[in-house]
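Exercise 3.2. Students should predict the tertiary structure of the chain below and write it as structure tokens, then compare their answer with the key that follows.

Predict this chain's 3D structure.
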Amino acid sequence: MSSPKSPVRVAELPNRGRSIIATDLIKPGQIILTDSPLLLYPSSLSSLSSFCSHCFRALPSEPLPCSSCHVALFCSVRCLSFSHPSLLCLSLPSLTSLPSVPPELLFLLSAYSLPSSSLVEISSLHSDSALLSNEQAQNLHSQLGSLIPSNLIPATYFSLETTALLLAKENVNSFCIMNPIESESSTIASGIRASGIYMLASRFNHDCLPNACRFDYFDDPNRENNTDIIIRALHEIPEGKEVCVSYFRVNKGYKERQSKLMEIYGFKCECERCRHEMERMEGGGNGDDFQHAEFFERFMCEKDNCGGTMAPLPPSNEGIVSDVLECNVCGIRVVSS
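Answer key:
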């Protein structure tokens, strides 16, 4: 990430751990990072009937079935040629007969389909094993053993310890790929079509008032690398400043944010916004954040039931900052006032 063209570098910060730091002045809307997935996998079995098992675009009216499992579907000959994780493919006929399939099992089947070098990469990510129960890891590992024929089990690294490690890494580092907002279907759990492991993007720390946000364009028919995610600056970021994203939509209240961060990621947020809201509650207030109202006026999408973050489009080749803001959830574009 610290190549000459990169506007950021990785550094260790006190009480923050591995962090992303601006190496130069970053302009509003500037692309900070473009990252391709190391691994993409379906969120549920039901998503397989709606989305391509390679690029996860919405399927056309006549999709192409996988010639091996006959369960996964693809949107094009190109995606069919790339196929999908081999152990997941092998297990899908059996999985479709089960009353329920945990998403973690779909992840593990996909992860164990990777070469060992990729598993080493995943194991280098941050995680907190205390967030995962030993019983859950043991149950999932047993299910894996019953699904994968013994001659196909990657014996050199297939173990309960590896399974537990992978689950811990996935729990705090995976990115959810949401359904198209205009066509969310109740048949796909929580509006999530897939999840992905993005090695570089996972290094950004959280802030409840982020200075950057993530964009993806999975449904863009003209984008060849549609599974890439892009991190763009919301506003000017000075050299030496940490670049942070929000791990969820920024319109959530203090108590909900703290609960989610502790439950999923295992930490209490002490960012400026959280400190201010906590002080208001301790003083007898309700925690509403009036001090940072300008942030929400500038960067919150006004579309009903969206909750997305608005960032300027990338600057022109001449470095001119765009006055057009784009929502990272619904995709709406508006001219800033």
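Discussion points: The chain has nine helices and 15 strands. The radius of gyration is 21 Å.
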